[in-house]
Amino acid sequence: MGAGGRWAEFRVLGPLEVDVGGRLLEVGGPRLRVVLALLVANAGRVVSVAALVDGLWGRHAPPDADRTARAYLSRLRRALLPAAAGMVEELIVTRPPGYLLRLDPNAVDAARFERLAREGRRALEAGQPAVASERLVAALGLWRGEAYGEFTDTAALRAEGARLDQVRLAAVADRVEADLAAGMGAELVAELEGLTGRYPGHERLWGQLMRALYRAGRQADALAAFRRARAVLIEESGVEPSPGLAEIQRQILAQDDRLLVPRTAGPGGPSARPAQLPPAVPAFTGRSSELADLDAIMPGAAGSTASGPTTLVISAVSGTAGVGKTALAVRWAHRVADRFPDGQLYVNLRGYDPEAPVTAADALAGFLGGLGVPGQDIPLGLDDRATRYRTEIAGRRMLVLLDNAATVEQVRPLLPGTPTAVVVVTSRDSLAGLVALHGARRVGPAAGARRQAGRSRTRRGRPACRPVRPAAAGAAGGRRAGGRPPRHPPVRPGG
Predict the structure, then answer these.
(1) pLDDT reading at 372 higher than 50
(2) Does domain 109-259 have CATH number 3.20.20.70?
């Protein structure tokens, strides 16, 4: 949504924020924030003037409340003009008996959270724990605090926040279940101890704690957890543990081997969906121009001509390290990860490491492992690996991040050949050959400096850049979802 590729995000899973191309929009005072929050909570549905009045003042509405509420809507429309730039229709439309906020579902973090949580639950029920865990981790990662937490005086928003909290708790339990199904145990104990302390009446969490303790070789502690759960349930609700929880106790007493064996085959296989992006830098600020440029190259973005694979080079001044190329690329990749439902691949090529640069063959082995190809089926030769990679990724909507590349020769074998993939390359070098021969578009500090110089000379906006397609295909490597693939050296994000 927005012009020139600027994607507007409305965030309510924490403090209310409107992000337009990497820049936070100033919405206005508390009253305007309440009106916006009510519209976002009901995006795509009409919010009546009466509901706005109730949200703003409750039972203490002034005599001219309807007129004042409409005035707030007019002010909010003006405040949101940057978010609505380039839209064919208005962002807020009048629709009797009130107003409607017209948003793409992906523009609201709460909607993305619920969609990813549903996908995770379906994958868990389908016996795909690695896929389930990836979806659920992505969903939970959208939370920055309490949902609608600043609007506790508005009953409708307080209720919506409480509903989202319940969905969040269910997603946490589903993610733990996916980890248990993938074979984890001891790694989950500390988290589950905290969760059962905060939610003592949640029997599912108690059962998960008992199973995790048993897998960690702590049978006595697992049985003690059952006794604690029973005491809490009797004291708080006057009920005995459910048959499901009692059955876990019986299995522990019987030392049932089924408690130790995951119920599914684990990660890998044709349904593998890699999620290899390193964590985003938490305090990342600025760089809104470069983020907007990256948004603009996305196929289908407003103002974009990209319809096929798009290779981007996030380029620094030649020879300069530490200017934030990786931070920029990873931040953007996390912002758009949910637009690549088939996964994200990452490798640090360590192109400027004199001792251990990652070869294209090793990178290919890592990506093939992450895509579910068993180690014994990964070809030995570089060309054969590249061919297998292109076959595995064909037709899949994936994001590929090749970090810290040194030369075009290092990158060229790693370019996918499918029109559904997007590739981002970071490098200290300008990678001119990649731009000239494969149609890559330069984005980053160096490009930004040239753009700023152009602004100073012309006093006009930055010229439009046409995204273009790479002509080669290949693969890159990284950490396999749920485990490290064979023959692949450890990777660390580059600079």
Answers:
(1) yes
(2) no
